[in-house]
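User: Teach me something about this protein's shape.
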Amino acid sequence: MKEVPDAIVCEGCDAVYRRVRLRRREVSHCPRCSTELDRHAGDQSARVLPLTVACLILFAIANLFPIVEIELQGLSSETTLVGAVLALSTEGMSPVALLVLATTLLFPLLQLCILFYLLVPMRYERRPAGFGVLVNALVALRPWGMIEVFLLGVLVAIIKLSSMAQVIAGPALWAFMALTVLLTAVLAFNPRTFWEMAFEPRPGQDG
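Assistant: First, the predicted structure itself:
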């Protein structure tokens, strides 16, 4: 099978075009259906790396500190995300505990670690080991990170509990809120850009 490295396929109508080198901030669209075909990566990688580091810091805070503290009749109780997962498993809800663990801890952490691992060497124009496998893994993990769903559930629970007890937001709750915003920006990074960064000719090289 012959490879055509400069070909690009429209995701809207499957038309095939020859890839055109774009200038900074340029976007190409399919002339048949107007679907976006390609856009110049610009300095996305330079912006995404510090955001990824910030997400990792917030992720650590969100998982090491209490989410909420509940005070009722002089008694107080607080829990972390891991504590909530353990509580679910001891209450006979192991499948739910596993789902929460995977979608709010394991999968988001894997995405951030993969991004960090890829972006650091590529900032210095080096392609890291396992490049192709990790980019594909990043794409596969995207739908499974559900921190925003977990945060919404926590906020609903806080609203319901506030009528029965005093609920104090912990550091982890604020970290989850900030993490949700930053993750939205980080995961807007198109993984296809990695391939462009890895194989696009550098200045001074023959195209």
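Now, about its shape. Residues 94-123 form the longest helix (30 residues). The two ends are 23 Å apart (CA to CA). If you'd like, I can walk through any region in more detail.
User: That's plenty for now, thanks!
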